[in-house]
Design brief:
Blueprint lengths: L5 H7 L23 E7 L2 E7 L18 E8 L7 E9 L6 E6 L7 E8 L2 E2 L3 E4 L11 E6 L10 H8 L4 E4 L30 H12 L2 H9 L2 E3 L22 H15 L10 E5 L3 E5 L15 E2 L14 H13 L4 E5 L17 E2 L7 H10 L6 E5 L5 E7 L9 E7 L18 H5 L3 E5 L3 E7 L3 E9 L9 E10 L2 E6 L1
Parallel strand pairs: 9-10, 10-11, 13-15, 15-17, 17-19
Antiparallel strand pairs: 1-2, 2-5, 3-4, 3-6, 6-7, 6-8, 9-21, 12-13, 14-16, 18-19, 18-20, 21-22, 22-23, 23-24
Helix pairs in contact: 2-4, 3-5
Length: 501
C-alpha cells in the first residue's frame, strides 16, 4: 500500500523517488508548467497528456519552446511511488502540435487505478492518477463521476476544480466552455472581474494556444486533471460565442480558419485521441454508456437571429442540433445499447424552458428550444434504452428537470431526466437559490430544481440508482471557498424523474 494519501498526491503534485527521477536535477526552466492529464478510458487503455511550455504565455504560442521536437519519457505504474512499473516509453513533443503529447495506451487491465508521470529536458512532471473502465459486461462496479462546465478565468478562482479533485471521482466529464475567447474586460461578471486574461480576443492559433496555456497553468485546474481521467466536449466559447457550423455569431473575416485554429489548440490541450470528430462513446461496463455529443459543428444556424424571443421558425422540421450523421450514430447507439444507464453528455439546455411567465412564450434559441424537431427525434430515441439521462452545462446554474412526452402537459409521462451543472466561475459568486415556487418554475413545472451558486455536480451510478449531489461554493471572487451539497436527487432504475433526497 502506498505511504502517501491520494489527497496529498493530488494537491501537492508528488514527483516520485525512483531512478526515473534521478536525472531530473537540471536547473533550466521547468517545461511542465501546464501539468498533466489523462482521458477517455477504455477497459484496456487511456490517453496520457502533457504539453511542454517553459513560458506558457509566450507571444508565438509555442510556450517558450524551441521550434524543434523534444523527447518526452513517460511511465505508468500500479503505485504512486512507481515501484511497480506497468508500461513506459518515450514520444516526441512536436512544435506543429504545440509541443503536446498524447500517449494512447493499450494492454492495461480493466477497472484498475494507475499512476503516471513524464520526464523531459531534465525535469520531472507531477504525478497523475487515472483508471481504466471496467471490463465489458461488468454491471456491479459503481461509478462516481463529476461533471462541470463554464470556467471563465476573469470571473473567479477555480476553487471548484480543487474541491472536485478532493471528491476523488473515478471519471470527470467537462461539458464545454473550458476556456473563454474574450480579451480582458470584455465579458464582465456582475460583481466585476477579479482576474484578467492575457492577449487579445482569440483568433489565431497562437492566441488559442496562449489562452489554453493560461488556463492550464492554474493550480486548481491542474489538481482536477491529475485526480482522474477526463472526457471532454467543447461548446461555443472554446471558439467564439454562439457559433454554429461554419457560421459565427457576428460577421467576421474568415471564420472557418478561426474555427480550425481553435479546434487545433483544443486537441493540443486535451487528453483526447486524434480523431476527425468530437462525438464518441465512453463505456463503463454494462453500468453506463456516455454518448458525448457535439452540438456546435453540425447544427443548423440559430433561428430568428438567435437570442431569447418568440420564434415560429424554431419549430421547422428540418432544424437539427446534431446533423444527420451524428443523429444516426446516436440512434444506432441507443438501439444497440445494453447499458443500465444511457447518458447524453452535451452542452446546452435540453428541456423546454419558457423564460417569460404569462401568456407570452420566449425561448432561448441557442439551446434545444431552438431545435424542437431535432429534440423530438432524440426524445423518441429514448424509447430504445432502459434509463435515459441528459447531462448539460452552459447555463451557469444548477438545474434538475424531467423530460416530458408533452412539455406543456405536466401530467404527461416522464421519459428521461436532465441534470444541469452550474458553472465553475462564469457569472461570479452567484446568489442564493431562488425559491422553488418562483414564477419561473411555476411556468415550467417539469423543472424541479434551480440553484445559482458556482460549483459542479457529483454523481454516483449503481445498477439500481443514479444519485446526484449538486455541489455549490459560497464564493469564487476570492480563493478558498468550502463546497457544500446544495441538494441531492435520485433517479431509480426504470423510473425516470427526480426524487429529492
Amino acid at each position: 500500500m502506498s505511504t502517501l494519501t491520494r489527497r496529498t498526491l493530488l494537491l501537492a503534485g508528488v514527483a516520485g523517488v525512483t531512478a526515473f527521477s534521478a536525472a531530473a536535477s537540471a536547473t533550466r526552466t521547468d517545461p511542465f508548467t501546464l501539468g498533466v492529464a489523462s482521458g477517455d478510458p477504455t477497459p484496456d487503455g487511456v490517453v496520457l497528456w502533457t504539453r511542454l511550455a517553459r513560458d506558457p504565455l509566450a507571444g508565438d504560442g509555442l510556450g517558450g519552446m524551441p521550434n524543434r521536437p523534444s523527447e518526452v519519457f513517460w511511465q505508468l505504474a500500479d503505485d504512486d511511488r512507481f515501484t511497480r512499473i506497468v508500461q513506459q516509453g518515450s514520444t516526441a513533443a512536436r512544435p506543429e502540435d504545440g509541443h503536446s503529447v498524447h500517449v494512447e495506451l493499450t494492454g492495461l487491465r480493466p477497472g484498475r487505478e494507475y499512476f503516471y508521470r513524464f520526464k523531459a529536458l531534465g525535469h520531472l512532471s507531477r504525478t497523475g492518477r487515472t483508471r481504466t473502465a471496467p471490463e465489458p459486461g461488468a454491471l456491479h462496479v459503481p461509478l462516481t463521476m463529476a461533471f462541470a462546465s463554464c470556467a471563465q478565468f476573469e470571473h473567479g478562482y477555480f476553487t471548484a476544480y480543487r474541491r472536485l479533485a478532493e471528491d476523488e471521482p473515478d471519471l470527470v466529464l467537462h461539458l464545454g466552455d473550458y476556456t473563454y475567447e474574450y480579451e480582458s474586460g470584455i465579458h464582465v461578471a456582475p460583481q466585476g472581474n477579479v482576474r484578467h486574461v492575457e492577449g487579445p480576443t482569440t483568433v489565431t492559433l497562437a492566441d488559442y494556444r496562449r489562452r489554453q496555456a493560461q488556463y492550464k497553468a492554474d493550480p486548481d485546474l491542474q489538481a482536477a486533471h491529475a485526480a482522474a481521467p477526463w472526457s471532454v466536449v467543447w461548446d461555443d466559447h472554446e471558439v467564439d460565442n454562439n457559433w454554429a457550423g461554419l457560421l459565427p455569431d457576428k460577421p467576421q473575416p474568415d471564420f472557418p480558419a478561426r474555427r480550425a485554429a481553435a479546434i487545433q489548440a483544443y486537441y493540443e490541450n486535451m487528453p483526447i485521441r486524434r480523431s476527425p470528430r468530437l462525438y464518441r462513446r465512453i463505456r463503463w461496463g454494462e453500468l453506463a454508456t456516455f454518448h458525448l455529443l457535439d452540438t456546435r459543428r453540425y447544427r443548423t444556424d440559430q433561428a430568428c437571429g438567435d437570442g431569447l424571443q418568440l420564434c415560429p421558425e424554431r419549430l421547422e422540421p428540418s432544424r437539427t442540433m446534431l446533423g444527420a450523421q451524428q443523429e444516426e450514430w446516436l440512434f444506432n447507439g441507443f438501439r444497440d445499447s445494453t447499458a443500465r444507464w444511457d447518458v447524453l453528455g452535451q452542452q446546452v439546455f435540453f428541456s423546454q424552458y419558457d423564460y417569460i411567465p404569462g401568456d407570452v412564450d420566449k425561448f432561448l434559441l441557442d439551446a434545444w428550444d431552438g431545435y424542437v424537431a431535432g429534440r423530438d427525434r432524440v426524445v423518441a430515441g429514448f424509447a430504445d434504452v432502459r434509463n435515459p439521462v441528459v447531462l448539460t452545462g452552459d447555463v451557469h446554474a444548477a438545474w434538475g428537470a424531467e423530460v416530458k412526452q408533452r412539455w406543456d402537459d405536466p401530467s404527461s409521462p416522464t421519459l428521461a431526466t436532465e441534470l444541469v451543472t452550474t458553472s465553475i466561475t462564469a457569472g461570479g459568486d452567484g446568489s442564493e437559490e431562488y425559491a422553488e415556487t418562483s414564477s419561473w418554475l411555476r411556468e415550467n413545472p417539469h423543472v424541479k430544481y434551480f440553484n445559482n451558486r458556482r460549483g459542479y455536480a457529483l454523481t454516483r451510478f449503481t445498477p439500481d440508482e443514479l444519485r446526484t449531489d449538486f455541489r455549490g461554493l459560497d464564493f469564487v471572487t476570492r480563493p478558498g471557498s468550502p463546497v457544500r451539497t446544495k441538494a441531492s436527487f435520485a433517479v431509480e432504475d426504470r423510473v425516470p424523474g427526480l426524487h429529492r433526497l
